[in-house]
Amino acid sequence: MSKSVLLLPGDGIGPEIVAEAEKVLHKVNEKFGLGLKFDSALVGGAAIDDSGVPLPEETLSKARDADAILLGAVGGPKWDALEMALRPEKGLLGLRSNLALFANLRPAILYPQLASASSLKPEVVSGLDIMIVRELTGGIYFGQPRGVRELENGERQGYNTYVYTESEIRRIGRVAFEAAQQRNKKLCSVDKANVLEVTVLWREIMEDLAKEYPDVELSHMYVDNAAMQLVRAPKQFDVIVTGNMFGDILSDEAAMLTGSIGMLPSASLNADKQGMYEPCHGSAPDIAGQGIANPLATILSAAMMLRYSLQAEEAAQAIEAAVSKVLDQGLRTADIMSEGHTRVSTLEMGEAVLAAL
Ligand code: IPM
Ligand code: MG
Fold it and tell me: How many domains does the chain divide into?
């Protein structure tokens, strides 16, 4: 049976990087006889410009029907002044919540070829391989009530609510324990249990789950310490599990350990393993349209998509090997450029991956 892939280029550099990933997907589709069918739709600012809303009904319905979704990025200064409910980011958040994509996997792997691109010393980051499991449809991002209200004294007050139910904690916990079982069997749960009750419960549920995974060594860390440890001694981590907002922050930090956020893919999965795949970086409006963005995070996201949602492990590995090969060839986009290498454009990087395939 043929499987369907929905492409959502989005805004900023999104269309440029998704175009390269699309070529790579067409290539492996042919080479490995995957029988993938492709469609595309608008999301974020591009959708706002077209129809006034960041997540049109048509996009949502195509997304529901797809086996997997590849998203570029959303957002940009053009739409920053819009009210919260109409901002491009709501398109992304709406897809996550409507498809119940609660499990966000963000691997931070250092390619040996890029050790010198990291701002940390090579010995601190060489061999780095961390998996951040971020809860993606709950926590303070979605908690109610939220808003800006006027107090009796006339002053305005902004407020959000940080909530997690036991079942939400348990299901993301299971994903993380299972990921750890497939890796080095170490799981660090990150919370703020010295201050926030919601994360006291989080810690309790993780402890409880640990009994079902005796082969995994569970530890806990406060988020402030985790932020510090990630730059002090990042190789102490194998799998990290944390809530939506802490995961947002720590995954950007972990990304930079690897030299460039332009290299990091991600997967957002629901209970049926339907998934949305996107680079960890944003829409980078400052460099959009210049042809200098790094398409590798998106190309690697396509590889994750083949692995987790399309059962095409061989094709996934072929893409990952091709990326490694172009790095070996010394090709670098601006964000990972260092002396002695060849600077290439977004398009040239995409073509090089195709050639390596
Ligand atoms: C991410 C992004 C999003 C988030 C934004 C664009 C809403 O930063 O995927 O990490 O905060 O989750
Ligand atoms: Mg983020």
Answer: 2
- Partners of 108 in beta bridges: 130
pTM for the complete prediction? 0.94
Does residue 298 belong to any structural domain of this protein? yes
Q: Can you give the CATH number for the domain in which 91 is found? A: 3.40.718.10
Q: Are 170 and 229 contained in the same domain?
A: yes
Structural domain that includes position 88: 1-102+276-357
- Residue 89 CB–ligand 1 contact under 6 Å: yes
The SS3 call for residue 90 is helix
Instruction: Determine the pLDDT at residue 2.
Output: 87
For 113-143, the DSSP string reads GGGGGSSS-HHHHTT-EEEEEEE-SSGGGT-
Position 270 in a domain = no
pLDDT at 105: 97
Q: Are residues 19 and 92 in the same domain?
A: yes
* Ligand 1 and 95: CB distance under 6 A: no
> Which tokens sit at 44?
């974020």
Residue 308 in domain: yes
User: What atom in ligand 1 is closest to the CA of residue 244?
Assistant: 12
Whether 1 has a pLDDT exceeding 80, the answer reads no
Q: List pLDDT tens digits, range 309-343.
A: 999 999 999 999 999 999 999 999 999 998 899 99
**Nearest-CA residue for atom 12 of ligand 1:** 248
Could you tell me the pLDDT band of residue 115, with boundaries at 50, 70 and 90? confident
Task: Kindly state whether residue 148 falls inside one of the protein's structural domains.
Answer: yes
